[in-house]
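Sample pair:
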Amino acid sequence: MKRVGVLTGGGDAPGLNAVIRAVVKTALDVYGCEVIGYRNGYDGFLDPQGAMPLGYDSVRGILPRGGTILGTANRGNPFARKVMVDGQEKIVDASDDVVRAIEAQKLDALIVIGGDGTLRIALELFRKGVPVVGVPKTIDNDIGGTDVTFGFDTALGTATDAIDKLHTTAESHQRVMVLELMGRDAGFIALHSGVAGGADVILIPEIPFRYESVVKKILRRKERGRPFSIVAVSEGAKPVDGEQVFSRPGDAMYVPRLGGIAQKVGEHIERETGMETRVTVLGHLQRGGMPSPFDRWLATRYGSAAVRVAAQGWFGRMVGLDSARVKDVPLEEALAVPKRVNVHGDGVLTARSVGVSFGDE
């Protein structure tokens, strides 16, 4: 193995730079490989200026930095690339161009750091002959084949800190505070931060809720002398017999953008209870900032392991965490079933045991 490529794709997450650093240092120190980084995800293979050599100086000081020094693109799907043809926008399949670029770069391995969408593209490129190893990244923690993705712990800390802050102002003003959190179709951020922050109601995609149950919980607290409540809402939550709320529809290029369910929940609570209700959307604050020590530790382990897997020639695989041990699994297996909150698992049972309502009672 003489030349290794690395890219970061999809939404950014704390810990990306820690993976890049581990890839570079492991490749250089252990295998004596040249490392090439590609800017803005897969777009880097279609950009004449997209490749950048990575050495010790490139990764010095980046371990605690959020974001990614390589840049990223959550719309950079080479199988559905937007181009101008005869003055009109068209969606074309540029994957063969990417494969040719990878061959021209003489890469012995390509380490792809990304979430579900980025890794699915990696799997399709592997089927076209690209020597790919995946590293699971997402604050949503929704990728199979691993106990946890890096980025989740930092986002969880940000969300929990927000709930802690909302608690004090909610109690001071006797208000209901509704906090919308990321996660798409997985409720891990809302569940974990809701329990850690002492939320009274947690609404997640895996458990459809009833508005009347949410109102009932809040009024019951008021009757018991607790005239304030905290409601943590995952952006993908939906009512029974209802639909998810989107702020932007999807198309061939874009996945639908979730957002707005918290506003609907807040309006219903205020209307039915008469209690002043405020809504906060935490948004991209969950993606930014310095990665937590756990995410730096996990990202470093993943990056180093990915290089070791590549050196063995085990391509089409993804590194992941299994009961505190880093392992590798086939990408196809990891992506077969998206990971979701187990509604009968310990996390949900614990939340119910301490009085949390999921709005399904």
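The chain has eleven helices and 15 strands.
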